Every structure is written in C-alpha cells, then in structure tokens.
C-alpha cells in the first residue's frame, strides 16, 4: 500500500514529496512525476533540506498546517557543509587550492569587525595584476545566484547575473575582502578570471563553493524545529496580506521562513529565544488552530494520506482541484477520527485501513460533484464567434523584395495560348533581347508537340530554325511541320512571324505557332533575322528543349508568385547553411526581417526552406563541429524572432506556426549543453562506452540533430523488446533513417546496439530521461516536453553536467495544469473522445494568452502546436472505434476536429460558420428533427468546400516557392511535386476530410438522397473520357459520342461538341447556366456523390458505356460498338439533324435610350419585353422593377462615332484575325471595346429616360459615378465576345456579326434572398411540379460559377401552400450591394427556339458586390420553419402566377426583400 501511495495521483497532489530526479517513475495514470512535480535531489557537499511529507497549504481562509508528532512534534533540518572553513565566529581557518603553477588560492572566513554576518578573505599568491572575482550568493533552498547588496569597492554588475569584483595588489599577491550580512545567504560561489589572459580558474570543473551557515556552538549540525518554521511561514504570509500562492510560491515562502530562522541562529540566537519571540506572535496562529479537537493530532498523517488515497481510488481517480484536494484530506481525517471515537486504537485503525474495512461515503458524494472526473471533463460553454480570425483578404503577392510587375503583353498572349491548348507544358523559356523579350512555350498533347513563340520586337521578323535529336544538331524539319508560308533551306527553314495585339491597352505582339508530329526530335535550335541582322542568344544559337525535365528547373525570369529575391538569397546562402543547424538557424534569423517585409510570400519562402530541411531534403551537417548549446542558442534566437512577428503581424500567424513546428523548440543554452554532457553520464553510469553508443556520442558531440530523437527512441524500443535488434531498425526505418543515413553523418554510426541484460534497467531509466532533453531542443510538436516546459521542471547536474531549472510559465488559467495532466493521463486511451475534449479545452483556454505579447509566449505557442498535433494523432487512432458508430458520434468528432482546425487557421470565418452548422445539426438530430440529415448534408458539403478552399490557398501561397526554391537547391522532384499535398495531409484538414467521407454515405442514406442527383435525365451512350475541369475542354470538339467524367464543374461552362453526358462529383446548381444548357442540348448531366461509383466510372476510361438515368440514380453498362451505331441512328431519327438557327441583324432605331413602354422586338430582346409585359398584369403583392433600355444598334452607333474611329479600326483588324481562327483575339476585342468614348447625346437621352421613369441618375452623385455606369454598359457590350458565348454561336453556326446587344437598365433591389423558378420540374419533366432554388443575397451566386448548392424545393401546383424541402444551402458566399443600378445583357440570340443562349452574356452592376461569408445558423430561412414555409410558398405562387399569364412553362429570376417577392426577369423554360 505504501508503495502504491507513493506514486498515486492523490499523493502527488497533496504531499508534493521530494523525489530524486534520476529515480523518478511513472505513476498509475501515466504522468511523469519528474516532469510535473519539480524534483529536489541531494547533491554531495551541499546543504540537504528534507521537507515534511505533509504540505503547508496557503488558502484565502488562512494557513492550514498539518503538524506531525515525529520526533516529538519537531522535524530537524540537517546542514552538511561542503568544507569546514571556520569553527567559530571569531576564529579563522584557511583552505588552500593550487590554481596554476606556483599560484595558490587561500580562503578564510571570520566574523566581521562590526555587526552580524561573515567576512571572507580571498588571497591569490604569485598572481597577475588583472584578477577579477566573478561571484554571487546562494540563498537557502536555492541553486541560482543572488547578488548581495554589500559589495567590495570597484564591483561591477555582469549581465544582471553576477558580480565582478577586482582584486587589489599587494606585492606578488592579490587580495580581496567580502562581507556578507544577508541572513538568507547560506553560501557564496565564485570563479576567478585573469582578464589579461582571458583565463578562468575553477574548482575541478566546478564553481568554488564557500558554505557560510555555521552553528554558534561550533557544531557540525544546526537544528531548526519544523514547527517554528511553520509559524514563521504563517507570520510571513500574514505580513504579505494573506495572498493566494501557487504551489511554487508556497515552497519559496516556506524555505524563506526557514532561512530567516537559520540566520537568527547563525547570528547567535538560541532556539529557545526564537521560540519565545514567536510565542508572542503565535497567539493568532494558535487561535486558528484552537478549534481543531485535540484528538486530531492523535491521527498520524501517514494514515490520513492512505485513507485519502483509498477515497480517491473509490471515486474513480478524479483530477481534484487544490481546494477539493484539501476537502478530501479533511474528509479522510474525519473518517479516522470517527473510528478513534469508537475506541479503536491506532494499530487497529492501521490494520483496518490496509484491509479497506473503514466505511466511506465517497462514491455517493462524488456522484453529485460537478468537477470533471478522470473519465471526462466538463467543457465550458463557448461562443464560437470568439474563435473568429478575420483579416483583410489581400492578393497573394510579394510586398517588398521584388514587386511583381504587371504581366507583359507577350506573357498575356502566351498565357492565352496555354489555356486554349490544354496540353501538358514541357518547357517555358524567356530570353531577353535588349529591352525586349522573346518567350517560348512548348506543350504536348496526344503525341503532338506544339511550340508557341511570341515577342514584342518591332519590324519584320523571321525565325531561322531547325529540329534536333541531340545537342548541337540542325536537322531540316519535315514538311508536315512547316507553318504556312515557310521556306525550306538546307538543314533549316525560315518562317515569318505574324503580328497580333495583346494586353491592356493593346500592344503589338509578333507570334508564331509550330506543330511537330514526330516524337523523335528532342529540341529546336534557332536564330532570329530582323532587318537583315541576325539575333542570337548571347552569341550562341537559341535552343528549346522538348523533353520535360525531371527536376523543376526554372528559366530566367521565373519565380512568379514567390518572394523571388529572398529565395535567390537563400539559395546563395545554402552552402553556408549546410555546415550545421547553428549556421542554418542564424542565417534564417538574419533573413527574417526581409521575409517579414515581403509579407506572406516571404514567410512562405522561409517555411519552404525550413520544411525542406526538416524532411531531410537538405544537408544538415557538413564538415563542421558545433556544440549542442550553440545549436539551441541559434534556435532560441530564431524562435524568439518568430514569436515577435507572431504578435506584431496577426495576419501571418498560421504560416508562423508552421515555421515554428519545423524549427523545433530549442532551449536555454544549458538545455542544449546537456545533450552533450548527459550522453557521457549515460555511458559512464551504465558501462557502455564503446561500440554504437560511443559512435552516437561522437555524433552528438559533433552535431546533434532531430535524428537523435529517433535514435534514442530506437534504442528504447530495442531494450524493451528484449534486445531485439529488429525493433531498433524498425523504429529507425519507419522514421526515414536508413543504414546509409547513419553512415552519412560526419561522425557515422556503423555499429548496432549490443547491451548486456544487467544494463537494462539503468539504460531504460537514463535514455527515457535523455529523451526529454533531446525533445526539449529538437521537437516543436512533442506534447510531453511542451507540457513539461510550461509547467516547469528542474534537472540537477551531476559531476560535470550542468543543471537546468525551468520555471512554470506565469499567468496560466486556473486549473490549467490539472487539465494538462488530464490530457497526459488519457493520451493513450482507446476511447479518444475524452482526450479530444481535453485537448480542445486546453487549446481554448490557451487561445487568449496567444493573442497578446507576454512573457514566454514561445513556450505557449509550442504547447498549442503540440496539442494541435495530438488532436490529429488521437483522431486517427480512433478511426476503428468509429467504424460502427452512429451518425451523432461521428458528427461530434467532426465538430472537435473542425474546432481544432479553426483554432489553427487565419481568416477562419467560413470554418467558424461550418462549426456552428455542425452544432446546429447535432441539436436537430437530438431533438429528432425530421430534416436533420438533410441539414447535416448541407453542412458537410460546405465543410468540404472550405477544406478545398484552404487547400487551394496553401497551393497558391506555398507551391510556387517550393517549386522555385526546390529548383535552385536541387531538391528531389517528387518532394517538390507533393510539397503542398504533404503539408495538407499532415494537418487536421486531411483528418477532417476522412471523417466527412465516413459520414457522407450515412447522411445520404438517412435523408434518402441516393448516390446521384440527376440534373438532365437523358438516356445515352458514349465513350468515357476523364478530365480535370470541364472549363479546360469546353471549346473542344469530340469526333465520337463522349461521356465526360469531369472532376470540376463550376456552372458557367459550355458543353463541348460531341459530348452526350457530363458526370461529375462537383455540385453545380440544378438551375445554373451549364445545367440549363445541358437540358436544352439533350445532354445527360448528373452529380455523383459516391466516390466508389465515381472511381469505377473513371476506371472505364476509353470504354463504351450506356447510361440510363432514373429520378435518383444512373444505371450504366458496357455496350458494343454496333449497339452504339443503332442507338445513334435511332437518335438521329428522333431528333433530326442539328437545328437551323438564324439571326436577323437589328438596326439602330434613332434613339439611344427608351422607356419600358417603348419596348418592341425591333428594339430590345425578350428579357426586356417580358418585364414590360408583366408590369400592370401581376397582382400587387408581386413587385416588378422599373426599367429602361439602350436598344439594339446603340453599340454600333457609338462605335461609328468619330471619337471612336481608332477603336473601330482596331476592332476591324481583330475581328479579321478572329475569323482566321486566332481565338486569342477575343480577349483583345473585349479590351478594345472598353476604350469606347461616350457620345454626349447618349448621356442626355439615358439621363432623361431614367429620371422620367423614377430611377436615380448616377451622374447626380458625381462624374465618377457616371464613369462607373458607362464602364458597366461597355462591359455588357464586350461580353458579346466572351469565349463561352462565341463558341456557343459557332457550334450552331450562328452569324456572330448578326448578334446584337441591347442593355436593360434596372435599379438593383438589395435582396435578402434571390431565387430561380422552373415552372416544370427540370429533372423529371413533370409539369405538375414547380422547382425552385433560393440563395441568400443577390442571384449571381445562383446563376454564376459560385461554389456550393442553393436551398431547393418542389411544390405541387395544386397545393402551392405545401412546399417540399429538397436540400439546405451550402454556398459559403453571399453577394450584397449598396443601392445601385444593374445593366443586363439582352441580345437577340438568347432565347431562340432550339438554342440555349440564356446566360451566355454578362449582366454588370454599376458597383462591385460585397462578398459576405454566410452564417446560416442565424438565417431565419434555415432556423425558422414558419418563416421558411411562408417565403417558399410565396415564391411558388409567383411562379404559378407568371406561368398562367404566359400560358407556358417559365424560367423566372427574382428576389425577396423584407418578405416581398420581386420578379426581375422571365423567359420560356427551355
């Protein structure tokens, strides 16, 4: 029982026993006692203070002192002097030390000439003239130096840590006299410094130590009754205002009281005199104890402790607060007193305790307690909005080091070429030709190599070129590869560059495209001919390589999206950084100010560099010997600087945490030095000085690294596996350390461990202790060492090894240490929920401390990083337990992991709202809400989008730096390619994604969602083609029926020619533009939610499949080519040939602006006419916005104005290029349109029509506002030439010149919600059902390419008051705008029969919309069932009303403002 008690948690908390550090053990709960409770080992030759087992507790209601009757109520304190230097206050005795040669140190102690204290006379014979005493005092119970107030003349303060007193010269000797009159100082320690020779004198490697505490009676032992120390401590506590002390402060106060009494004894006071003095002051103290029954003192404290421990065990081993500990101790005392009152003797009580026969009511009492037990904590109620980090979103660009220049016209031109090509890029090169540039891009697709050349050189330009199969070779290109107009020569050919325009404003670019069919060629040599002069590449031929490089090798001018200058500097310093970690960390520190000024990209560069280091992609040590303390000092410097930036620049905290986690914690210099010293002690104490241990020792002395943590763990695993060397290698290899790596160290490790069995216990003990030292320096995310550092610990030095004392971090929240101990208690539990709760609660309590500057912030940051990492580790360990868990349990774990990710993320607004959504889903589930699974599915979809956005941001910020720096440093290509992916996989985002994947099928099954959402139900057959993005292939034309499996579909793409089906895991809205076009084009379109089905479809790439969609599923099967022909024939008979669509050119009607009453088919499109038709015909509860229009022909009229002659000429030239197939001209045309000047008559007429219609005139708010309106009008006109619309008209052979664009002008209704209605269910074709989708804010997020799903519902036309909710919204962004004007496109080609032209052209608001991250947990449409029912019913009634007016199915757009429905446009449903 006593041994169990010694290591029990209750004993730790109540007794705080003194434990020798090198004998520390792990208690029953897995907490390292040595780490959590500072040890006080005895050291030979110094004072040994043994403390009472029963603690002295300071509390607000007084000092409770548990007295002991050991040695008649007194405990003695033994003082063992290191060396007897004096035998009485008046006598003198010298001790001599040989310093150097014939120089001798003599020390004498005597009483001073006046007053109490000591006089120390120090003499150095035959000395130099430049001796200094480097010294300090040692107070009772302390190891660190204090600086006495009484100092010799000439004494100087040294770094606030020591005093330096000069010796005076007397002949050939040096003399110094020191007086010590401070009663709390028990000794002095010193070193002697010869400043002239920079030489230090020590006592066999130690400080010289002079003990001062002596008995007046010349005894070798001074006795201080413990009860007097307790009374003195109480009096000190009273004098200081009865403060509430921490355990560490309690200990300090207790030892200070002892020092005061010892001082009195040293000055001649007897114990009796002290007792008499204290008796007068003790009345109050005794009064406080007088209410304790005399019988209390009859219960030995060891019995009370045992009984308290039994109570603690019966209660389930809870983690008690300090107050609860005292209550439990008192309860144990009362139970034993009850036995004593019954007449039971102490011996009988002792026997009954051992048998457990003493009754206790602890179980029933503790069930009523609210504090957390060992099984679970009770988390504090929290407002998730307090987790919000929101900073101004800035574009990712370098701020300072090298400002990113605007892309040149040549660069923009080639970027467009790359997008159109869609092939893989083999090479991108930039050649400087004076102040001009030549850019070359090489792509490969379907076995064809394409070379795109572009330059801004002026004048006629000829490419003199050839092909090559090896370096230096010129081979004449095959005729099939010659561009039109090329001239063949001997071993070469010449081709003229063609002129085009690019950029804004348009700039001339000369370009040339070459296509090579033969894959045997590896490159292209060439020179340029301009005005009769040859242009070369610095005297040599230009050369372009066709073979994709294995390494990420960037050409000159690359590094876009990085802090390029900083990365260049890092690369230049790498050879110096490779010498050692000290060099690398110091270089990083020197570059940190530069990185900070460069902004996010600068810090990203530092992180990438440190990450390459941490993952062993860079050399750690190269022919340089450095001490561990120097490494840890360099780490300290770097992490201190990172800590300072963390406080000053909160917007960069996430990337700074990532850097800290790669660098490691470092440690005060002594911690680093212990790495070097402690391995020697391990070798000596365990008799293992040769073989592998000696090789490791040499490696540690030469250059310690994070590998040493792994090596230490491998040795521990080797020993615990009964000396199985396979365990040693398994640990090494699983952490990336191979035999080759061990041999590669400057001091290589060649041998395997080979220990004796009798060494087992000692080695395990010492290596486990050594592991803490290693982790303290190298590990930034180790939880145990992070907790130990924050709670404080002390490691005494042995022999030559320095001691270390780390104080607790001040100002920790109340109960926080107990919370951390709870975490460590449960760190290996199979049921991870309690651990996750503890980890998250600890992070929540830490968070306020991390938001402001404070002492030792760095230690708290490393603790938070370690807690964050443990959440991921624990969650992954708990996956197995979740296999058979219900949805509520999985959702709860998701909330914990998401909370963890939120705590670690900058700009986490979307994550915060996802977190609120999950908690709302849990509440709905527990309340048995019928829609809980549907709502949870929407939150799951939104969370996936948030994770995707986070991954994209990481890729945008980190990957360019990884690629550029990786190319400069020669980092392994694979490591560069997966750099960002590995960062994401190592964090909570990847863990969360796996949890979402587990929950998704459960929710779909519960909500009866199935594995598919059918957007366009068309039965078809085709060959499977897998693409990343539908956008990348929208302009492609497939020669055979094609089923596209597209990983990404945004919503605004065009469906390529030849496509019969689009299947995607993405979630475009059913009413998005691409969805409408799919239905109109009779293309099967569906979203697949099941990853296994999607993987199976992707695996069938190239095969012929038949698709049969139903209302909630897609059945697919392989078919033969003959069946496809039959199906195609049947399809042609049913559908006929491609529809013939024609346009009629519209003419200018003579007016620049017209009112809605003047809208006719000759002047405006169907969009404007339909709005005018509705006005006055719909009921009053349905609002129609006021409208005017710029009719057909106004654009052409403005273009023909004399002020726009230059623009007209540019457009004519660009349209000619476009007709010749140069599709890059589309962007140039749009930019040219924006250069149009406005005719004054247009301004006058538009102003008059808008004001007479009751609309606000933008010019009334200033000229700038009209300029904004004019630019919006031009953007609508320019959208006639957007790629999606242009290729759509080409597909149906529309004459693009005949397409005319009117502009519908409406005042924007600042919507609460926007909606789109299809009055016939588009998925099923059921005309009895209305289908609608609703979003918060403006409707552009619904019809545009904004991620996420809208709220969707169905409503039967015969029961408009009963809408059926189909899905909750998952769109993270809503658009909102000030009172403004919108200019809507209204072409004559949008609503042609048989042509899906709707939504191809742009509608542009005069003001930019504000993007708002949406919080659905506070949205009435989500949380208020009655409100939702009212709004959805009103939307359905609006659809039915308008359909009845037109007598046909309608596609309607509208908004809701303050509960009122407004319709902004309607058109026939296609």
Summarize the structure.
By secondary structure, the chain is an alpha+beta fold. It is built from 47 helices and 47 strands.
Task: Provide the fold topology.
Blueprint: H1 2-6, H2 9-15, H3 33-36, E1 56-59, E2 62-65, E3 93-100, E4 103-110, E5 118-124, E6 131-139, E7 156-158, E8 162-166, E9 168-170, E10 173-180, E11 185-194, E12 199-201, E13 208-211, H4 226-239, H5 247-266, H6 271-290, H7 301-314, H8 322-341, H9 346-355, H10 362-367, H11 409-421, E14 424-433, E15 436-445, E16 448-455, E17 461-465, E18 487-489, E19 492-496, E20 498-502, E21 507-516, E22 523-530, E23 533-535, E24 542-545, H12 564-577, H13 581-597, H14 600-614, H15 628-648, H16 653-663, H17 669-686, H18 691-702, H19 707-720, H20 725-734, H21 739-744, H22 760-778, H23 783-791, E25 793-795, E26 804-806, H24 816-825, H25 833-850, H26 857-877, H27 879-882, H28 887-903, H29 909-926, H30 932-969, H31 973-977, H32 979-985, H33 988-1006, E27 1012-1016, E28 1020-1029, H34 1030-1033, E29 1037-1048, E30 1057-1064, H35 1073-1080, E31 1084-1088, H36 1091-1099, E32 1104-1109, E33 1114-1118, H37 1121-1135, E34 1154-1155, H38 1166-1174, E35 1182-1183, E36 1187-1190, H39 1194-1200, H40 1205-1219, H41 1225-1233, H42 1240-1252, H43 1263-1278, H44 1283-1291, ...
Helix pairs in contact: 2-7, 4-5, 4-6, 7-8, 12-13, 12-30, 13-14, 13-15, 14-16, 14-30, 15-16, 15-17, 17-18, 17-22, 19-20, 19-22, 23-26, 24-25, 25-26, 25-28, 26-28, 28-29, 28-33, 29-30, 30-32, 30-33, 40-41, 41-43
Based on the model shown, name its key terms.
1470 residues, alpha+beta, seven-stranded mixed β-sheet, 47 helices, 47 strands, 41% helix, globular
């Amino acid at each position: 029982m006593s041994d169990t008690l010694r290591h029990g948690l209750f004993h730790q908390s109540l007794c705080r026993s003194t434990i020798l550090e090198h004998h520390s053990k792990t208690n029953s709960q897995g907490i390292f006692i040595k780490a959590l409770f500072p040890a006080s080992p005895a050291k030979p030759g110094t004072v040994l203070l043994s403390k009472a087992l029963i603690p002295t507790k300071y509390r607000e209601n007084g000092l409770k002192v548990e007295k002991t009757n050991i040695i008649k109520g007194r405990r003695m304190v033994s003082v063992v002097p290191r060396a007897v230097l004096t035998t009485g206050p008046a006598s003198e005795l010298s001790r001599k030390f040989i310093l150097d040669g014939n120089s001798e140190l003599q020390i004498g102690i005597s009483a001073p000439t006046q007053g109490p204290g000591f006089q120390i006379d120090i003499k150095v014979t035959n000395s130099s003239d430049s001796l200094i005493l480097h010294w300090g005092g040692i107070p009772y119970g302390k190891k660190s130096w204090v600086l006495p107030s009484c100092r010799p003349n000439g004494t100087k303060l040294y770094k606030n840590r020591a005093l330096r007193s000069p010796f005076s010269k007397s002949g050939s000797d040096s003399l110094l006299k020191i007086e010590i009159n401070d009663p709390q100082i028990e000794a002095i320690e010193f070193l002697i410094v010869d400043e002239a020779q920079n030489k230090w004198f020590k006592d066999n490697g130690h400080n010289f130590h002079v003990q001062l505490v002596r008995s007046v009676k010349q005894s070798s032992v001074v006795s201080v009754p413990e009860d007097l120390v307790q009374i003195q401590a109480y009096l000190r506590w009273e004098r200081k205002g009865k403060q509430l002390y921490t355990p560490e402060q309690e200990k300090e106060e207790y030892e200070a009281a002892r020092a005061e009494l010892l001082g009195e004894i040293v000055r001649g006071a007897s114990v009796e005199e002290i007792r008499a003095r204290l008796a007068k002051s003790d009345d109050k103290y005794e009064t406080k104890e007088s209410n304790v029954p005399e019988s209390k003192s009859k219960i030995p404290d060891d019995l009370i402790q045992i009984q308290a421990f039994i109570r603690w065990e019966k209660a389930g081993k809870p983690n008690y607060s300090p107050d609860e500990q005292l209550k439990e101790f008192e309860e144990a005392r009362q139970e034993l007193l009850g036995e004593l009152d019954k007449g039971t003797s102490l011996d009988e009580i002792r026997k009954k305790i051992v048998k457990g026969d003493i009754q206790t009511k602890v179980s029933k009492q503790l069930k009523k307690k609210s504090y957390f037990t060992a099984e679970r904590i009770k988390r504090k109620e929290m407002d998730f909005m307090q987790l919000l980090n929101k900073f101004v979103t800035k574009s990712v660009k370098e701020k300072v080091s090298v400002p990113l220049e605007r892309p040149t016209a040549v660069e923009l031109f080639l970027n467009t070429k790359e997008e159109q090509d869609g092939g893989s890029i083999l090479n991108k090169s930039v050649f400087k030709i004076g102040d001009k540039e030549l850019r070359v891009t090489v792509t490969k697709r379907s076995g064809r190599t394409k070379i795109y050349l572009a330059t801004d050189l002026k004048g006629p330009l000829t490419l003199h070129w050839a092909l090559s199969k090896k370096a230096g070779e010129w081979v004449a290109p095959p005729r099939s590869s010659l561009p039109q107009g090329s001239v063949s020569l001997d071993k070469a050919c010449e081709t003229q560059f063609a002129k085009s325009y690019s950029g804004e404003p348009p700039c001339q670019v000369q370009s040339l495209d070459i296509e090579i069919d033969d894959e045997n060629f590896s490159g292209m040599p060439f020179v340029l001919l301009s005005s009769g002069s040859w242009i070369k590449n610095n005297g040599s031929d230009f050369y372009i390589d066709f073979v994709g490089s294995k390494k990420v090798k960037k050409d000159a001018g690359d590094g876009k999206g990085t802090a390029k200058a900083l990365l260049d500097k890092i690369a230049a310093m790498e050879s110096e950084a490779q010498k050692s970690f000290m060099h690398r960390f110091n270089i990083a520190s020197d570059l940190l100010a530069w990185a900070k000024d460069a902004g996010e990209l600068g810090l990203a560069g530092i992180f990438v560099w440190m990450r390459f280091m941490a993952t062993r992609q860079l050399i750690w040590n190269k022919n340089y010997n450095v001490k561990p303390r120097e490494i840890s000092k360099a780490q300290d410097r770097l992490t201190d600087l990172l800590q300072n930036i963390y406080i000053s620049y909160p917007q960069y905290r996430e990337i700074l945490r990532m850097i800290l986690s790669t660098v490691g914690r470092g440690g005060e210099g002594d911690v680093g030095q212990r790495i070097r010293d402690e391995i020697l002690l391990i070798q000596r104490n365990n008799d293992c000085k040769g073989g592998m241990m000696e090789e490791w020792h040499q490696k540690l002395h030469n250059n310690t690294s994070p590998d040493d943590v792994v090596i230490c763990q491998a040795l521990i695993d080797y020993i615990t596996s009964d000396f199985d060397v396979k365990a040693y290698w398994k640990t090494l290899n699983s952490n990336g350390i191979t035999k080759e790596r061990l041999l590669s160290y400057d001091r290589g490790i060649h041998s395997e461990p080979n220990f004796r069995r009798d060494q087992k216990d000692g080695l395990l003990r010492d290596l486990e202790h050594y592991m803490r030292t290693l982790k303290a320096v190298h590990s930034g995310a180790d939880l145990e060492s992070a907790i130990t550092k924050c709670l404080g610990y002390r490691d005494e030095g042995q022999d030559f090894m320095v001691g270390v004392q780390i104080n607790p971090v001040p100002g920790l929240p109340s109960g926080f240490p107990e919370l951390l101990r709870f975490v460590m208690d449960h760190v290996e539990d199979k049921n991870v929920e309690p651990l996750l709760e503890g980890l998250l609660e600890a992070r929540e309590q830490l968070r306020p401390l991390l938001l402001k500057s404070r002492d030792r912030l760095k230690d708290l940051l490393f603790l938070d990083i370690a807690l964050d990492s443990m959440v991921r580790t624990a969650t992954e360990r708990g996956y197995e337990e979740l296999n058979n868990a219900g949805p509520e349990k999985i959702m709860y774990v998701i909330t914990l992991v998401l909370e963890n990710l939120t705590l670690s993320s900058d700009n986490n607004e979307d994550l915060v709202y996802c977190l609120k959504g999950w908690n709302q889903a849990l509440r709905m589930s527990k309340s048995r809400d019928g829609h809980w699974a549907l709502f949870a599915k929407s939150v799951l979809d939104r969370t996936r989008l948030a994770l995707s956005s986070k991954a994209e941001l990481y890729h945008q910020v980190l990957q360019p730096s990884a690629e550029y720096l990786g190319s400069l440093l020669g980092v392994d290509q694979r490591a560069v390619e997966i750099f960002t992916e590995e960062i994401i996989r190592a964090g909570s985002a990847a863990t969360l994604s796996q949890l979402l994947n587990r929950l998704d099928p459960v929710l779909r099954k519960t909500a009866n969602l199935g594995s598919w959402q059918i957007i366009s139900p068309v039965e078809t057959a085709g060959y499977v083609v897998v693409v990343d993005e539908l956008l990348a292939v929208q302009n492609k034309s497939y020669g055979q029926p094609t089923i596209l499996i597209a990983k990404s579909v945004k919503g605004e793409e065009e469906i390529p020619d030849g496509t019969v089906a689009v299947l995607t895991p993405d979630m475009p809205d059913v009413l998005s533009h691409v969805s409408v076009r799919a239905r109109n084009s009779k293309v099967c379109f569906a979203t697949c939610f099941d990853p296994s089905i999607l993987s199976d479809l992707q695996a069938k790439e190239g095969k012929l499949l038949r698709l049969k969609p139903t209302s909630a599923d897609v059945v697919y099967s392989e078919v033969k080519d003959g069946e496809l022909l039959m199906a195609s024939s049947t399809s042609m008979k049913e559908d006929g040939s491609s529809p013939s669509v024609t346009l009629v050119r519209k003419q200018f009607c003579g007016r620049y602006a017209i009112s809605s009453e003047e809208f006719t088919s000759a002047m405006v499109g169907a969009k404007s006419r339909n709005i005018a038709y509705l006005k006055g015909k719909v009921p009053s509860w349905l609002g129609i916005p006021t409208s005017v229009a710029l009719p057909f022909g106004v654009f052409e009229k403005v273009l023909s104005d004399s002020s726009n002659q230059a623009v007209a000429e540019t457009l004519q030239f660009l349209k000619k290029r476009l007709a010749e197939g140069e599709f890059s001209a589309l962007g140039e045309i749009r930019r040219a349109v924006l250069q149009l000047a406005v005719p004054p008559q247009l301004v006058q007429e538009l102003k008059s029509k808008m004001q007479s219609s009751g609309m606000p005139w933008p010019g009334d708010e200033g000229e700038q506002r009209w300029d904004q309106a004019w630019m919006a009008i031009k953007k609508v006109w320019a959208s006639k030439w957007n790629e999606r619309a242009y290729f759509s008209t080409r597909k149906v052979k529309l004459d693009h010149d005949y397409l005319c664009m009117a502009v519908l002008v409406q005042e924007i209704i600042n919507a609460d919600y926007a909606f789109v209605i299809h009055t016939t269910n588009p998925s099923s074709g059921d005309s009895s059902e209305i289908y609608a989708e609703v979003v918060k804010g403006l409707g552009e997020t619904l019809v545009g390419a904004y991620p996420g799903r809208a709220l969707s519902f169905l409503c039967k036309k015969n029961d408009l008051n009963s809408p059926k909710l189909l899905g909750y919204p998952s769109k993270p962004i809503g658009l909102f705008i000030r009172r403004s004007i919108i200019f809507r496109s209204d072409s004559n080609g949008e609503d042609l029969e048989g042509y899906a032209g709707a939504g191809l052209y742009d509608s542009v608001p005069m003001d930019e919309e504000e993007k708002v991250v949406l919080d659905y947990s506070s949205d009435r449409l989500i949380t208020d069932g009655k409100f939702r029912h009212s709004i959805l019913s009103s939307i359905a009634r609006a659809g039915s009303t308008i359909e009845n007016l037109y007598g046909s199915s309608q596609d309607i757009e509208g908004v809701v403002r303050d509960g009122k429905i407004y319709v902004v446009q309607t058109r026939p449903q296609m």
